[in-house]
Write a structure and sequence with these properties.
It contains ten helices and 14 strands. The protein has helices at residues 8-11, 35-44, 59-68, 82-92, 144-152, 177-185, 198-208, 222-231, 245-248, 258-266, and strands at residues 2-4, 16-19, 48-53, 78-81, 98-102, 117-118, 127-130, 157-159, 165-168, 171-174, 190-192, 215-219, 235-238, 274-276. The strands form three sheets. The protein has a seven-stranded parallel β-sheet with strand order 1-14-13-12-2-3-4, sandwiched between helices. A five-stranded parallel β-sheet has the order 6-5-7-8-11, with helices on one face. Strands 9-10 form a two-stranded antiparallel ribbon. Strand 2 (16-19), helix 2 (35-44) and strand 3 form a beta-alpha-beta unit. The protein folds into two domains: 2-83 and 196-276, Rossmann fold (3-Layer(aba) Sandwich); 94-192, HAD superfamily/HAD-like (Rossmann fold, 3-Layer(aba) Sandwich). It is 31% helix and 19% strand. The chain is an alpha/beta fold.
Length: 281
């Protein structure tokens, strides 16, 4: 495994980058040290940049959010979000008009303007949509009755964010993707949008205009960023101090000890091409 202290050491080998946001650019509230400068340096070096996020937010809202954090969004050629891809898919292949939506704090804005009727009971729905969850206040077990009701009616589910973990001020908690995985385990039909599924990488590569072999994906999740890049034929660099920090016994910005990495990698869903301490120049 090749380890690198910074992005500059790798940049010469690639024409474009696919960047995760949470765990790479920022922690959900604040940019990581040096991340905004690194984004600018990549742009100045002539590299094409796509930010790829499993966020269920729309592209414009996502760009506005990182702009407020201090990132120069002019350095980003495209922000590709799982939410935007899910919305597009529902426009092209609707499952019906009556939707029961799993949300965070009741926010259904992702699906507004599609002519949907949001229902308050699963029994009244034609399909389910996972666009958020109220974790940590409500965890997977608290949604079991709703999921079972969907199974009983054989309702299809659209998952607009497959992430199973997310950062919160106190650490890491469940993300909405656990609802879709549980529904699938119960026998439900789930249409996933986002990493690690190949369709969203095709959107990124189209935006970048680079062949897959000349693109580097940088992320902090083996299950999403590294596995997705591998399926798309894209090289990957893992920042191990993100969602895997506890497993590896490190803090953000650190690289794991060789033995800790070997234990972790032995059961990992995919192997990154590189380990990268942080997204800095």
């Amino acid at each position: 495994m090749r380890e690198f202290p910074d992005v500059r050491s790798l940049a010469g080998e690639f024409d474009g980058c696919i960047l995760d946001q949470w765990g790479v650019l920022h922690d959900g509230m604040h940019p990581y040290p040096g991340a905004a400068e690194c984004l600018r340096r990549l742009h100045d070096a002539g590299k094409r940049v796509a930010v790829l996020s499993n966020s269920s937010k729309r592209e414009a809202e996502s760009l506005a959010s990182i702009d407020r954090m201090g990132f120069d969004v002019r350095c980003i050629d495209r922000f590709v979000s799982a939410g935007e891809e899910a919305r597009k898919a529902l426009q092209e292949r609707p499952f019906g008009t009556r939707c029961y939506a799993f949300t965070r704090g009741g926010d259904r804005s992702l699906l507004e303007g599609l002519g949907l009727e949001f229902v308050d009971r699963v029994e009244d729905a034609q399909f389910l949509a996972v666009i958020g969850s109220d974790s940590p206040a409500r965890l997977l077990g608290d949604y079991e009755a709703e999921l079972q009701a969907g199974i009983a009616r054989r309702l299809p589910m659209v998952c607009a964010n497959p992430d199973t973990a997310r950062f919160v001020p106190g650490g890491i908690t469940e993300a909405q993707g656990v609802l879709a995985r549980r529904y699938e385990a119960l026998g439900g039909n789930v249409a996933y949008h986002g990493k690690p599924h190949p369709a969203i990488y095709r959107s990124c590569l189209q935006a970048l205009g680079c062949p897959p072999g000349r693109v580097l994906a940088i992320g902090d999740s083996v299950d999403h960023d590294v596995l997705g890049a591998s399926r798309a034929g894209v090289h990957s660099a893992l920042i191990p101090g993100g969602v895997h920090a506890v497993e590896l016994g490190i803090a953000w910005g650190e690289l794991p000890a060789p033995e800790a990495w070997r234990r972790f990698a032995a059961s990992a869903a995919a192997q990154p091409d590189y380990l990268l301490a942080a997204f800095n120049w």
